[in-house]
Design a protein that fits this description.
Elements (H helix, E strand, L loop, with lengths): L4 E5 L6 H15 L6 E5 L5 H8 L4 E5 L16 H6 L4 E4 L13 H4 L9 H13 L3 E6 L3 H5 L3 H12 L5 H4 L3 E4 L13 H18 L2 H6 L1 E5 L4 H8 L6 E4 L6 H9 L5
Parallel strand pairs: 1-2, 1-8, 2-3, 3-4, 4-5, 5-6, 6-7, 7-8
Helix pairs in contact: 1-2, 1-12, 7-9, 11-12
């Protein structure tokens, strides 16, 4: 039985003090759900203080990104060794925003595309590095609105999953987490239909079986992410292929996030 996993991605929100206050409001209550794994992913600047706050709780610490080298002349990057030094257990890899793929068609966002260079190749390198350092990668895959309208959802997702696992051994594949995040749902308020989200998560699992083996695919947890709220989380978690949720804006409100954790009853 796959243990449900709820991950809060704080994105570029929360100073250290704000993050400590937020996680303090979450920790005691989610400790009442030891049957659900809970991870928070603060900005790099808040990792240390948030860890100190949750060290005796059920919550694990995650990062929002990482570079694949341990050290070097890579200004502005964070290495896996640095994350381990901050007690990070999980790391989000390949989020659509890191790939320069935004859910909103707002022109003010499209101007930033040139500043993001994440690709399937760099995602794969980060996954291999994370696994080598015993950091669990949360690998994000998903299609844009244009790709969905063109009927390319399965093609895009299968390609991203296959490329993500390049050079990853079958044994290592047991240590990954995938998150289906349709780009058109991220930050837009449009949640993917439960049955469709379940179908795509099933496609991810089928692709995993082809890339690794059926046993590994059956063990890997697959999350849904994209405008998740407490009102939609229960229905999503009742779907058999959805093992958890990658939560964005709703993870910035303690009460909302706790409700989402308590809705995670995988049937």
């Amino acid at each position: 039985m796959r243990v449900p996993l709820i991950v809060g991605n704080w994105k570029m929100f929360m100073t250290s003090a704000q993050g400590v206050a937020l996680v303090r409001g979450i920790a005691l209550r989610v400790d009442n759900r030891p049957d659900v794994d809970v991870v928070v992913c603060p900005p790099f600047t808040a990792l240390s203080r948030v860890h100190d706050e949750i060290r005796d709780s059920h919550i694990k610490l995650g990062a929002q990104n990482m570079f694949w080298e341990d050290s070097g002349a890579f200004t502005g990057q964070i290495s896996p060794s640095m994350l381990l030094d901050l007690h990070v257990s999980y790391c989000i890899v390949g989020h659509s925003e890191a790939r320069g793929r935004f859910g909103s068609p707002d022109a003010d966002l499209t101007q930033y595309l040139a500043y993001f260079s994440e690709s399937d190749h760099t995602v794969n390198k980060k996954i291999q590095s994370a696994l080598f350092h015993s950091i669990l990668p949360i690998i994000c895959v998903g299609e844009t609105a244009t790709e969905r309208a063109a009927g390319k959802t399965d093609e895009v997702v299968r390609t991203q999953v296959t490329n993500a696992l390049g050079s990853v051994s079958e044994d290592e594949a047991y240590g990954v987490v995938f998150a289906y995040e349709p780009v058109w749902a991220i930050g837009t308020g449009d949640v993917c239909d439960e049955k469709e989200a379940n179908r795509v998560c099933g496609t991810i699992r089928e692709t995993l079986a082809e890339c690794t083996n059926p046993e590994a695919a059956d063990n890997v947890r697959i999350l849904y992410g994209g405008s998740v709220k407490a009102t939609s989380s229960g229905g999503l978690m009742r779907e058999p292929e959805i093992d958890g949720l990658l939560v964005g804006g709703a993870s910035l409100e303690a009460d909302e996030f706790v409700q989402i954790v308590f809705s995670a009853q995988h049937e």
